[in-house]
Amino acid sequence: PAMRITGEGTKNVEAPNPGRFWFKHAIPVENEAGLKKINAFLTSERFCFSTGDTCLAAEKMLKFPLIILPSFDFIPAGSAARLIAYVLAGGVLVLGPEIPYLDEKMKKLGVFSKLKYQNIAGLKTASAGSGQIVIWDCKDESKLLKAIKQLTYVIQPVKLSNKKIDMAIHECGGRLLLFLANPEETAQKTALKILGKKMRDADDSKII
What we know:
Layout: E1 2-5, H1 27-44, E2 49-52, H2 58-61, E3 66-71, H3 77-88, E4 92-97, E5 118-120, E6 123-128, E7 131-135, H4 141-151, E8 158-160, E9 166-172, E10 175-181, E11 192-194
Parallel strand pairs: 1-2, 1-3, 3-4, 4-7
Antiparallel strand pairs: 5-6, 6-7, 8-11, 9-10
């Protein structure tokens, strides 16, 4: 599964130039909008994902091959350390729209900005240890999807031809539980493609 994380709270810090906007982004507003866009993207593309925060230990982050985090000019130093440890151990981290260059005390943070970035699938990408960092502008989902498919082993185990059908996949003890629902007022048809798995109907146990 993939994972999107919501970030970690920071202390209030007085801007050096009161009365002026210090950052070019309205961070609380754009952070919320970014989370909604990421959630919609992962849902529409039928990825299995969880929601967490940057307090999660790096070893627990490694249960997820992909983490997507809305990021702006600053990030707590502790969060940055855990995230870079995740990447060094092989994880793929998507940040954006900005590369954080300050910590919570507004001191320079070079963990992400000092990396050498190249263009992959139209997005800035940097290697670190066994993992990758991708910078996404939170605008073009097709570029993000292409980068994810190139850089991670995140797969969509079930594909539907009709996106009007709601789908949820739960993993339990190495088994996948698939739930489908039709939220429309009219009957819907869909083709169901299952990748590399045998699925049984929960009612009669017949293999689908």
